[in-house]
Each structure stands twice: as structure tokens, then as C-alpha cells.
Amino acid sequence: MLVGYDDARVMIDCGADWLRRVRDIGPNAIVLTHAHPDHAAGLAEGAPCPVYATEATLDLIHRYPITDKHRMPSRNPLRIGALTFEAFPVCHSLRAPAVGYRVSAGGICVFYVPDVAELPNAKNALRGIAVYIGDGATMTRSMVRKQSGTLIGHAPIAVQLGWCERAGVHRAIFTHCGSAIVRGQPQRLSVALRQLGCERDVAASLACDGDRLSFGGG
Prior knowledge:
Strand content: 25-35%
Distance between the termini: 17 Å
Radius of gyration: 17 Å
Low-confidence stretches: none
Structural class: alpha/beta
Largest sheet: 7 strands, mixed
Mean pLDDT: 96
């Protein structure tokens, strides 16, 4: 996902399919959610701009020849150009600890978490956001399991919509979709997702490559 405001252009995550392609979009900075290859391996040959990630993620990608690395603090807002990022630890993987981000600019705030099994303190993380952009692994089938007492995997869209409902978030977009959604029938899936959202007073949709979301005044 590319987030822009004023002169800032920040790319969130850079998976293996972006290897040697990052320069094409010219980000000012790259922010990582975690170190799994589909989120970070696009940097395996280095990066053309500063890279921000948690200490755990930087440790896991320490062999990547990234010359300008910055530690992303937990729950402490960090400004990158005109954009502010606040990292919220989430449950997803024990080997590659993940975060979601509150991203703020111009009085607008969104929350982005492409991989999540559980969002601790969801009401605080989602407080006052305009849009929740979440994990599209499955619609209703849970891919969450417990390992060493911690939940890992992927929460279904239906569960994430419940987080939105309880936090008073009325719009949600789901990305990083699983195979059942990618290979499914788009019209049928869209209808089913809208229905799930309506049950929770959330306008819900699936993201597609190239989608653009704009907010007035930004």
C-alpha cells in the first residue's frame, strides 16, 4: 500500500514480488509490518529510501543490504514527512512478530493491518479512524490457532468486522486476500461481504490492485 500526503509517499510493506521494482513508484520511505517474505523480501537487494520497522523485524532482515534503517517504536507515534505512524503489536506469528499501523495526516486517520489473528485492545487501536484496512485471508472460516499460548494465523473478515462495530468504525476494506477470495466469483463475494458488513453497520469491500482511496483536503 502506498500512502501519500503533501510531498510524502510512504510504501507499507514490500513483498518478494516487488524485488527490483520499488524504484518504479519512488517512495520517500518504506514501513514494514513484519518480516515474512511476502511483506519484506522485496528489500532483499536493498532499498532506494529509508526503511522503518520494529526492532524485531529489523533483526530478522539484518542480512538485507539496507543502508538507511530506522527503528519503529511501539505505541509511540513517529512522523515520516507529513505522515504520522503509530505501531500497534498484533498477534499473527511468533517467528515474525507483526504490527498494524495507525496512519494519520490532515486530520484523517486510517488503520492498516494486512495480517492479524488478534488485535489486542482493538477499541483503542481503532479509535476515531475513518477506514479499517484489514486481513482478507478468509471471509468466515477461521485460520487462527494457538501456539505456545499465543494466537497466530489470520482472523476471518467476519471477526474483524466485529472489531470495527465495537469501535464505531463504519468503513472497512480488506486486502492481502486468500486464495478462496482471489479465485472466487467477484460479484458473489462482494454481495456476501456487503451483507456481513451491513449486519455490523460497516460498509465493507475488497481491495483490488490499483485501487485509490482519497480524502478531501489531502
